[in-house]
Amino acid sequence: MDEHKVIDILIKKLNFSKNSINKLKIFHDSLLIHNKRYNLISRNTENSVWFRHILDSAQIVKFFNNKMINNIGDFGSGAGFPGIILSIYGENMGFHVKLYEKSPVKRDFLKSIKIRLNLKKVIIEGDIYEKEVNSDVIVCRAFKKLGKIIRFSRETIKKPHKLIILKGKNAQTEINSVSLDPNYSYKLEDSITDQDSKIILIDVK
To answer: Among residues 115, 143, 168, 182, which one has the fewest Cβ atoms lying within 10 Å of its Cβ?
Structure first.
């Protein structure tokens, strides 16, 4: 799917504004420039960033209840997927986005994007294991196994929250491999970018 079709979906189905699209274009171009030196994303996906990375991340907004979100935590943000995409979408809304990334190189890239796009509600943090986490919503893409994410959630976040986790074809297998206590309820949603991929939604009471 080319850039124009992705932008059409972002505007018509996911309610991205034209200003947000302009910022996504700047982000896209900056990512490709920096990727030549820092390997922020796989070189094999450079020609499909709009579809493989931007749209894949943006689809998460379908599951937001904006009135109940104060801050979002993106675990293992990497090059900003999905955190930067969500912050561009929500910059005129009430929530902040915390990007947790242990790589100094990737953190520097995220800082440069925050400044260039004037993303005032983005907070860039280090490794999640070295920081206090108190987000209402946790998002993860290409991060750790589900069991480790849930364990961290259970041990660290002491309030009700939601986990939104982008996973591949083994999503159900990962769910079956962990034991969810009664305070955890989940459902699976189909990804709009890959028929085999899933989005795991977990509500933690």
So the answer is: 182
